[in-house]
TrEMBL record:
Signal peptide: none
Highest taxon, organism lineage: Eukaryota
Protein name: RRM domain-containing protein
Source species of the chain: Papaver nudicaule
Every RRM domain range: 19-65
UniProt xrefs under PANTHER family: HIV TAT-SPECIFIC FACTOR 1 (PTHR15608:SF0), SPLICING FACTOR U2AF-ASSOCIATED PROTEIN 2 (PTHR15608)
SUPFAM superfamilies hit by this protein: RNA-binding domain, RBD (SSF54928)
Similarity comment: Belongs to the HTATSF1 family.
GO molecular function: RNA binding
Record's keyword terms, sorted: mRNA processing, mRNA splicing, Repeat, RNA-binding
Gene Ontology cellular component annotations, sorted alphabetically: U2 snRNP; U2-type spliceosomal complex
Listed GO biological process terms: mRNA splicing, via spliceosome
């Protein structure tokens, strides 16, 4: 979803990305947490859903984006 270099060069990216991911994920079910792993080389975003089935739907939708 991003690179660490992009995260360092754009001060608003973390906030914008978190909002965008949460906006998409709540369409699948209630979201408890969205965490941007800003230094991860693969641009990882962690999302915790209230229900496991919603998390599985999210993996299918978002994996590899």
């Amino acid at each position: 979803m991003f690179t660490p270099a992009e995260m360092r060069s754009d001060v608003n990216l973390k906030t914008e990305l978190k909002a965008d991911v949460e906006e998409e994920c709540v369409k699948l079910g209630p979201v408890e947490l969205v965490k941007i792993c800003e230094n991860h080389p693969q641009g990882v975003v962690l999302v915790r859903f209230k229900d496991t089935k919603d998390a599985h739907k999210c993996i299918e939708l978002m994996n590899g984006r």
